[in-house]
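General statements about sequence and structure are easier to judge against a single worked case. When preparing material for the folding task, we compiled for one chain both its residues and its backbone structure tokens. The amino acid sequence and the backbone structure tokens for this protein are reproduced below:
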Amino acid sequence: MDNNKKREIIMHHYSKPDNKLTELPNWSNNYLHSTNCVDEIWLSLKKDNNVIKDAKFKGIGCAVFLSSCDIFLNEIKNKNLEQVNQIINDYKIMINKENENFNKDILGNLIVFNDVKTHLNRLECASMIYKIVKDNIDSN
């Protein structure tokens, strides 16, 4: 995917997010604040029989942060927890450039963040969503 297409996807999810709310439903809520910048998220996941049925967030932050939250939640909806954990693991490997052994097909539009580590200050912005989702599904 070329850089212009990546920017287009990121800016679309930043300016017109599918999953961002001003008030969260009372399903299951977690909060996370960046240690490096103003990014913060409140996450609400609706689970049924180990499947993420819906996912919403409330947050403030930069384009990378907010778009990664929105795209990530789109990618995990209607997936079982095993699939969600695989997305988390492959996304983490990809953005941290740990190796090239990740499944691009299961990441969907999250692939737009494959070069986020070239700007280290943006790495945490793109990482916060997988951390809070992981914390949420591990705690329930």
